[in-house]
Design a protein that fits this description.
The protein has 311 residues and is mostly beta strands. 6% of the residues lie in helices and 57% in strands. The longest helix is centred in the N-terminal third of the chain and has 18 residues. The N and C termini lie far apart (71 Å).
Amino acid sequence: MKLLKTICLSFIGVISSATHAQDFDASIQLRPRYEYRNGYKSLLKTGDSPTSFISQRSRLNLNFEQDKLKLKLSLQNVRTWGDVATTTTADKNGVAVFEAYADYSFDDKWSARLGRQVLSYDNQRIMGGIDWIQQGQSHDAALITYKDAKNRLDLGFAHNANAENLLEPTTAYTTTYKEMQYAWYHTSIKKVNASFLFLNAGYQYLKTPTDLQTDYIQTYGTYLTYKGKKWDFDLGIYGQSGKSGHGQGSHRLVPFRTFTLNFLPFPFENYRYRYIGDTWFCSLNYCVKINLCRLSKTFVYPELPLLLKDL
């Protein structure tokens, strides 16, 4: 028995010494949220009444790092208070994998990441984690990154299926995109930050009862930001083209472009500009949005992010 104890203690000592140089981090996020919905998404009809509820996100994050390797596992449960009985023996919401990836750095500039991960860029207008919804958004993807002091290039790839099929399915994959490739480049030139995005997403549809087809939609554009002592602005310009499958066929998208300009002058140190609305100018293929602000002596901390509201 003493020999067994000695072996066990020695084994624990070896593990402790081996993991001493490693970095492990665990964190827990609990986010309950009360909502009162009075015409959210669609206006209330005559006789309809508002509603309220409390939802909660419980997320466990596990991070491991050793030398050039990083591993992350993030598990979460999203629920509405009261959606299961107080004496329940099972949770209908379950636990989902939000992130599960391995990240390996080949050197100081090149790295690769494989697995379930958040893809978030710029103001998240095109690609983002959508963290305001309780479940968030993550992708099953492969990512190759190049990064130096002023430049970063991300190349992403994804190929999705419903299951480990032995034969090609006879029904279209509609959970999300079937294929996805993108390139995102970011650089800094003095006080200007510039990003360029090209995204190609393929969506599968059933062209005939026996013919599965995939149509591809291309999204491309740039996002520019400038921050000076008295002037801030950001500008997003994006276009979209390609084909989109519907029912028994597909149609070609008319090239469409959107422009968003947020202009934030700060001529006086103690003044802030309060967001009061936006104006749209649209034609057949173009839309331009200009955000309107007014000068306010009062510091407005919760409304400033509204200047970045989505198109």
